[in-house]
Design a protein that fits this description.
The complex is a heterodimer. Helices cover 31% and strands 17% of the residues of chain A. Chain A has helices at residues 19-25, 60-65, 67-72, 74-82, 86-91, 94-99, 123-126, 147-154, 169-173, 251-257, 264-273, 285-303, and strands spanning 11-13, 32-34, 44-46, 52-55, 158-161, 190-194, 202-209, 220-229, 232-241, 248-249. In chain A, the strands form 3 sheets. Chain A has a 4-stranded antiparallel beta sheet. In chain A, strands 7-8-9-10 form a 4-stranded antiparallel beta sheet, sandwiched between helices. A two-stranded parallel sheet of chain A has the order 1-2. In chain A, a hairpin with a 2-residue loop joins β8 and β9. The longest helix of chain A is centred in the C-terminal third of the chain and has 19 residues, at 285-303. Chain A is globular. Chain A starts with 10 loop residues before the first strand and ends with a helix. Chain B is α+β, with helices and mostly antiparallel strands. The longest helix of chain B has 23 residues, at 654-676. The termini of chain B are far apart. The chains are: A alpha+beta, B alpha+beta.
Chain lengths: 304, 895
């Protein structure tokens, strides 16, 4: 009596940091396809305009440590540095991080059926969903596990796959209304992530709220990009992870800040706006306080 | 076929893409220093270097190593020990040692990189914390790991010295130490337990034939009891398989046909307390005993066992006085309800056993806390002559109370080995370890505390409901009898059974949840009486050991500098809290030590086992001290039931059981040496022992644990004598049935915790812990400090992070992996100041009693009092995760 993924679903294996655990537990039983990365998939390239293209097989540690990425896309580098553990970051790839499967404790239990494994309902919804979503956007209540997806959404990255070019993050991950962790076709492989050139004067940050100090899946995580000119917020992009079935932009926060000075009052208004549109579950209301808290914390840091 | 260079040798890699690197290392190449613990890349025990970079081998496909260079822990110290290894040894940055190879591999890579970039300077603490964040140590040797990594980076261990206060440290830092999971006999099969998928059901049929028919399966057996075919929790054993490897065993387990007749289940104590809940036990079925102590008879009402009131004194008076005070709105009365979560032991070495028959002889390697007692239990259970049973545990990767019994891993390994006629290993998966291998029961404690008009303690009431799944026999409220004498005490314990796996003894069973309620109630009483909490404890607590510790705590700068919560309004608020705790002083009757001279070398033997607590070193240190030798010169033989009877590693009893007979044996051996010296020296003199030993013929002496010298107890009585008739009965039963004596005096701890609360993100940061401990003389100071610090960190985990989560409908344990069951990491470890007050146990030969349990009893309570001091709000439920902290703060935050 086990509930693995549908056995016909072949899975790509990048470094195996997600898949190996699911093979061992029996959640993944279908065919395995090891990725044979091309040279491009292993490199970070730069356009003349200063835009990066990161191969899907570049490791998270490389992204975190790359001096040019850190300088041009500090939110991406910080997100990479903030996820998992040093040993995982050394081998886990950017593509694998985007395509990893949910960390929901029901999904990961081979004995429990769930929507992501072809079951008929989500056991977390009425069950123990302490770490689930507070923006209940779809049938499955597990938050998306990819920290890099949140960072890439904030940077409006375009994803190239073996079949398609120029996909935005919503095309890759969906809008949260389905139970899938991603929208890639069977056999479709992420090959590269293309970033627009950074904005002039842009600053960015990443932070996750967790109970311990390191090495824990985020209760809520936030990516902030901001351009302040003459004391006024000229551009701001806020993306939250760990709180919805997919990483979500927080347009109400952005609207509350647009054209404003970063002051205690505007920051407070932005923090209040963060929970706009939220639909917490019975046990996840606390995540909205964490979300508002992170907005306040990180914007205050940018104001300082 | 591809290959990799592993520790400098070219090795072929398997072509099967499913094989992971950890399996090649451990199973094919027998490089067992690399440990498999979580299988999810969380704990880092399997860390190896891939072209010089640390990676987790538990998730890495073996094929991914093709053409690369792999270095395991065995490869790191092969030529000469790395400075990091020497630092870990010298500074005792390890206890059970199971996580140590992973830490060593990571730390050597960090060290080399750091020194290349920065030279020989110590890195900041937070840099080390981040670098080591992919590793977990359940013994919580983190305090010393910080020190070891820092000092190695600073170049202080570049020399050739390889000394260590822990005698087996070298084996542990090089990966040479063999644990039960590492044992592999020829033809050995892998055992696996087939477990119930339902929380409550009757098994109507069990068909093992499909499993037995599979190639590679050596045995398949039923584990159902003859007279009870019910299963009462998800994961209850039903059958077992032995097969050539893990994969085949898993396939065979899946092929076993089980027909269930599902029955209504009730999950968790809250639901089970309802009279409408399905009944867990009826008829002849008997609940498991979750305690170390004997199971006393008790009443039952539906799923609730109790009230067990025997530790009360003037129970009705206590209740009446509290009711009257409530009616009269007595401002000094405090009443509250406190809740603590189930805490998993999380030993990094899982429960494991390897059973092997040679004719009539049964040898079992077991990851156990009691080799000697286990031999007797196995002999009884399997009707084998005890002299034909041998239990071995050279190294044990943690236990914390969960490995004190004849568990299913051992019983099943023996049954399978018998059926398959070859050796069989059973090693729990991490899922099993975190779901069915025991836990500290969750508890709800309702407390009432009533000071008298004169400021004395008039009445105390504790009513505890323990949530130990299908098991019973928690004593939580009852423990409040033996601290803070009052005019009247109402102490009532209930067990509530439900369809969840059984709880088990865990470091000071019942102590931390009792202290969490009682020590916060004392704090509340102090607030109501407007008196310093330490002063109030000194007024109410008559125990001399703790009174000395209160004076020490009161002298701490951080205690004197604490401020009232009302003065703090910012985002970050700081607080200081204090709590006290005690444990029983226990020793095992019949413990023996043999001491011999063999070829001029001293050999000390006893059937105790070292689960990381350091008894091997305590023995070596004690002998070495008496003979003016170095500890490493003593050959200490433990971990084998063929040795003279030794104590179990539970109840903090090993030091107090082993050192007294060891000292007697030392006296005898000295007398013997003196005699053979022809009367030139006397046993008490500073004799040239080294020369005498070298010249001595082989000789063996032995001694048994003597009774304590009551005349030297300074008026202290066995603690249980203060527990009235039930205490006396309890003490008698422990002596009679468990061979445990409860001696005079109370091992004690008083702790002061400093916290900083982030009111915005609900995060509690522990700034510093001061732990004062009175357990008599310290037998091995460095190891004692490590154990005391580890106990504190486990207590912080209990207070802040750790909670077992279940599915309330199915009874599945959801926190069955180390991502979801959150134990403290190195960066969560604050600086810990340790103060040993070495008095109080002069009546014990050697003057020492155990540390492990008492040192964790007050931690969560002290932290909660610190949080109350920081934010002005009383936390009543742990762990204090961000969701709980935000709930506590909510009104304040948004007002």
């Amino acid at each position: 009596m086990t509930y693995p993924l549908p056995a016909d679903a072949a899975e790509y294996r990048a470094s195996g940091t997600d898949l190996s655990e699911r093979r061992r537990s029996g959640v993944s039983t279908g065919p395995l396809v090891d990725i044979a990365p091309t040279a491009e998939m292993l490199t970070i390239g730069w356009s003349e305009a200063g835009a990066a293209s990161i191969g899907a097989s570049v490791t998270i540690a490389q992204v975190a440590a790359d001096a040019r990425i850190t300088s041009a896309y500090p939110g991406i580098a910080a997100a990479a540095f903030g996820l998992a553990t040093p040993q995982i970051r050394h081998v886990a790839t950017l593509g694998g991080n985007l395509a990893q499967r949910s960390r929901c404790w029901y999904f990961r239990n081979p004995h429990i059926a769930c929507l992501k494994k072809g079951g008929s309902d989500c056991p977390a919804r009425e069950g123990n969903h302490l770490y689930s979503v507070a923006f209940d956007l779809g049938p499955c209540v597990a938050p998306h596990p990819s920290t890099m997806a949140a960072a890439l959404l904030a940077y409006e990255a375009a994803v190239a796959t073996s079949l398609r070019q120029n996909l935005d993050m919503i095309q890759v991950l969906g809008d949260g209304s389905s139970a899938s962790d991603h929208q890639l076709a069977n056999g479709e492989l992420i090959t590269a992530i293309q970033l627009p050139a950074p904005l002039r004067g842009e600053r960015a940050s990443y932070k996750r709220a967790i109970s311990r100090t390191h090495a824990e899946w985020p209760l809520v995580e936030l990516v902030v990009r901001i351009v302040v000119v003459d004391q006024q917020v000229q551009f701001v992009r806020i993306v939250a992870g760990g709180i919805a079935p997919v990483p979500i932009r927080l347009p109400a926060v952005e609207a509350a800040l647009a054209g404003q000075a970063l002051s205690p009052a505007s920051i407070s208004a932005a923090a209040k706006a963060a929970v706009s549109g939220a639909k917490p579950l019975r046990l996840t209301g606390y995540k909205l306080h964490l979300l508002a808290g992170l907005v306040e914390d990180m914007l205050s840091a940018h104001a300082a | 076929m591809s290959s990799a260079t592993i520790n400098g040798r070219s090795e072929l890699l398997p072509s099967d893409p499913e094989v992971l690197l950890v399996d090649v290392l451990r199973n094919t190449l027998r490089l067992t220093g690399t440990k498999l613990v979580c299988g999810a890349g969380v704990c880092g025990a399997c860390t190896v270097l891939l072209d010089g970079v640390p990676v987790v081998s538990c998730l890495m496909p073996a094929a991914a190593a093709a053409g690369k260079s792999i270095t395991t822990v065995e490869g790191i110290g092969a030529a000469a020990l790395h400075p990091v290894q020497k630092a870990f040894m010298a500074l005792d940055a390890l206890q059970c040692g199971f996580c140590t190879p992973g830490f060593i591999v990571e730390a050597t890579a960090f060290h080399d990189r750091w020194r290349a970039e920065h030279g020989a300077v110590a890195p900041p603490r937070d840099v080390i914390g981040e670098a080591m964040s992919g590793h977990l140590c359940r013994c919580s040797a983190y305090d010393n790991i910080f020190r070891a990594v820092g000092e190695a980076c600073a170049g202080r261990y570049d020399g050739t010295a390889t000394a260590s206060p822990r005698v087996e440290a070298r084996e542990k830092v090089t990966g040479a130490a063999l644990y039960t999971v590492d044992i592999k006999h020829p033809h050995q099969l892998e055992g696996m337990i087939v477990r119930s998928r339902l929380a409550h059901a009757r098994i109507t049929s069990l068909d093992l034939a499909p499993a037995l028919a599979m190639p590679g399966v050596g045995a398949a057996i039923s584990l159902l009891a003859d007279d009870d075919n019910h299963v009462r929790f998800v994961g209850q054993p039903i059958a077992a398989i032995a097969a050539i490897d893990h994969k085949t065993a898993a396939a065979a387990a899946a092929a076993v046909l089980i027909k269930y007749e599902p029955l209504p289940a009730v999950i968790g104590a809250d639901a089970a307390r309802s009279d409408a809940a399905p009944l867990v036990y009826s008829g002849k079925a008997k609940p498991a005993n979750s305690a170390e102590g004997p199971l006393l008879p008790s009443r039952w009402k539906h799923n609730v066992r109790g009230p067990n009131v025997a530790f009360s004194t003037k129970r009705k008076k206590a209740r009446k006085w509290i009711e009257q005070a409530r009616a009269a709105r007595n401002p000094w009365l405090f009443e509250g309800t406190f809740r603590t979560a189930a805490q998993q032991h999380t030993s990094l070495e899982p429960h494991a056993a390897v059973a092997s028959f040679d004719g009539d002889q049964l040898t079992v390697h077991v990851s156990t806390q009691a080799v000697f007692e286990l031999r007797k239990k196995i002999a009884t259970r399997f009707e084998i002559d005890a002299k034909n049973v041998r239990v071995i545990a050279d190294h044990v990767g943690g236990g914390f109370g969960s490995k004190g019994v004849l568990g299913p891993e051992t019983a099943v390994a023996i049954q399978l080995a018998k059926a398959a006629k070859v050796p069989v290993r059973v090693a729990f998966s991490r899922h099993e370890e975190l779901s069915v291998a025991g836990y500290r029961p969750a508890a709800e404690v309702r407390i009432g505390i009533l000071p008298g008009p004169d400021g004395s303690l008039k009445a105390l009431s504790l009513r505890a409901h323990a949530d130990a799944g299908v098991a019973v026999n928690s004593t939580i409220a009852g423990l409040a009898r033996l601290i803070y004498p009052a005019d009247a005490k109402e102490l009532i314990d209930y067990d509530v059974v439900s369809h969840l796996p059984p709880g088990a003894p865990f470091r000071g069973p019942g102590g931390p949840p009792m202290a969490f309620a009682l020590e916060q109630a004392i704090d509340e009483a102090a607030l109501r009486m407007a008196i310093d909490p330490l002063q109030l404890r000194k007024r109410w607590d008559t125990n001399a050991n703790r009174r000395r510790l209160y004076d020490w705590a009161a002298s701490l700068e951080s205690w004197r500098a604490k401020v009232e919560p009302s003065t703090q309004t910012g985002r970050y608020r700081r607080g200081v809290g204090v709590a006290a705790g005690y444990w029983l002083y226990l020793w095992q009757i019949g413990s023996k030590v043999e001491l011999s001279v063999q070829g001029g070398k001293l050999v000390a033997s006893t059937a105790v086992q070292d689960i990381g607590t350091g008894i091997r070193s305590v023995i070596a240190d004690t002998v070495a001290r008496e003979f003016d030798l170095e500890s490493h010169e003593i050959d200490v033989r433990i971990g084998d039931s063929r040795l003279p009877e030794g104590p179990g590693s539970g109840g903090s009893r090993t030091t107090a059981s082993v050192v007294p007979p060891l000292l007697l044996a030392i006296g005898k051996l000295k007398a013997s040496l003196a005699k053979s010296s022809g009367g030139r020296i006397t046993p008490g003199s500073n004799a040239p022992w080294r020369e005498l030993l070298a010249a001595s013929p082989d000789v063996t002496v032995s001694a048994e644990r003597p009774e304590d010298d009551a005349s030297r107890a300074g008026g202290q009585r066995p603690l249980l004598r203060d527990g009235g008739i039930v205490g006396t009965v309890f003490a008698w039963m422990m002596r009679r049935f468990s061979h445990m004596a409860a001696g005079a005096g109370a091992p004690s701890s008083v702790q002061v915790v400093e916290v900083e609360v982030d009111t915005l993100l609900g995060h509690v940061r522990v700034l510093r812990v001061h732990t004062g401990i009175a357990v008599g003389k310290i037998a091995s100071p460095v190891l004692a400090r490590g154990q005391a610090a580890g106990s504190v960190i486990q207590g912080l985990g209990y207070a802040l992070y750790e909670a077992r989560e279940v599915d309330a409908r199915t009874g599945d344990i959801l926190t069955a992996g180390l991502e979801d069951y959150r134990i403290p990491g190195i960066a969560d470890t604050p600086p810990i100041d340790i103060h040993f007050d070495e008095g109080g146990f002069d009546h014990v030969l050697g003057g020492s009693v155990g540390i492990g349990e008492v040192a964790t009893v007050p931690t969560a309570a002290a932290l909660a009092n610190a949080v109350r001091n920081a934010i002005g709000i009383r936390p009543t439920e742990i762990p204090l995760r961000p969701d709980r902290m935000l709930a506590l703060l909510r009104g304040e935050v948004h007002s």
